[in-house]
Amino acid sequence: MYCGIPHSMMDMIQGGAMMKKQDRHIGNKFIFLLSIIAILAVTVACGLGGGKSANSPTEPTTPSASSSDESPSIEETIPVTGEALQDQAGSTGGISDSFPLPEGTTINADSINEDDPDRGWFKLDSTAELSGLIDFYQSNLPDQGWTYRYTDANYLGGVTQYWKYIDKYVSVQFGYDQDEEVVRVDYVRVGPETVVRFPANFPLPENAEFTRAGDTSWNLYIDQDYAAVNSFYAKASSGWSKCSGFISGAMEGECGGDCGGPNFPQGVTPMPAPTRDARPWKDYCWVLPDKNQVELTIAPHGDATLLVVDVTSLNASDADLPEGIQVYPGATIQSSAPGMIMFQANASLEKVKAFYKDSLTKAGWTSNGEPYSAGGATLMNWQKGNQIVMITISDMGGGASVVAIMLQ
Q1: How far apart are CA 158 and CA 183, in angstroms?
Q2: Which of 68, 245, 280, 298 has the smallest C-beta neighbourhood within 10 Å, fewest atoms?
Q3: Which residues touch 80 (CB under 8 Å, ≥6 apart)?
Q4: Which CATH number fits domain 74-190: 3.30.1490, 3.30.160, 3.40.50, 3.30.70?
Q5: Taking the CB of residue 206, how many other CB atoms lie within 10 A of it?
């Protein structure tokens, strides 16, 4: 058995953690449930299963998008761009070799992380003052073929510049860590091959450009005013169903106009004063006719607008479950992806557990040991031939359960 958590589950857990950070689309109880499922998965796969086998794949590591342990703000995670990605030739190399350096500045060799051709980061060591470094890059990067987008104050007592370089979207973060100056460069490539995964039936305003892309999540820059983008989606969403239990509206109150406030060493004066747009973000969630659930965050940024689009399939068929494994009758699907599905059943944990014990046995599946229980959740492993399935049932109270089915 593979000792670890499938990517689909890890993506869901990490996405849930970010949503919890921003107090967005998902309740704390559901976040806790995902954590319990992860713990159970690791406990059974690693503790009871005897560890990872020699031929198990190694999980790749990806660079952090921020030097802080805190989740970055929307402005710090969406570099702004101007030209259309589809018209770019593209590149796959890192940028540390060609990154210009002022006098007294070097790239910290131990910090370079450019193993992934689509993203990377590194830090600079410098004897120069931050103000001089900021002016240097503002003046010199355009001469190297970089296109400047904008500068925002950050939480490290400094500023973050956003640039475009070929098909890479780059943030150069200037700030402080304890009493030391920190300059960190992060970049991500967004090629046309990643953009094609975006739902074809989800409308975008004119001048929309992708700045980050994943399997189910995209960031975009819109060269239009916030009010115009909100008006566009007010019209486009006419006839769409709102997500169950989701309250659309403005995200205000929690940010106090600055979304988190400064976090830099005592005695350090930030430069410049925070300049984030004080208008509230708009948060929406719709279920489209094709059963794709789309969560949209619209954030103002001066004369432009930033978007975050997250797509979750609610189609059971997208899980591609093996024969004999079915969704609990009458359940509400919450997420579906290849090899994984999660849904809420209006039945107790014991009732759902009995259902799967009966139905899987009749379908020729064999239980791999006794169910494992912890924290109000039960995990069962079943096998048929070379197929292994993990079923986690969590008690949500009130006669309801959340079920996660994952193929190993």
Answers
A1: 10
A2: 245
A3: 149, 150, 162, 164, 169, 211, 221, 301, 304, 306
A4: 3.30.160
A5: 9
Q: Which residue has the tokens 């005592």?
A: 266
Eight-class DSSP state of 44: I
pLDDT per position as a tens digit, 5-61: 444 443 443 333 333 333 343 343 444 445 445 545 544 444 444 333 333 333 323
3-state secondary structure of 175: strand
Q: Which residues touch 338 (CB under 8 Å, ≥6 apart)?
A: 8, 318, 319, 320
Residue with tokens 């940024």: 301
Structure tokens at 397: 């109270």
The pLDDT tens digits for 311-343 are: 998 888 888 998 889 999 999 998 898 889 999
Best CATH choice for the domain 7-59+316-407 from the list 3.30.310, 2.60.40, 3.40.50, 3.30.530: 3.30.310
**Positions of the chain with pLDDT under 70:** 1-93, 178-179, 245-276
Helices (H), 141-270: 192-195, 226-236
Task: Find all residues with CB under 8 Å of 24, minimum gap 6, and list them.
Answer: 18, 251, 283, 295, 297
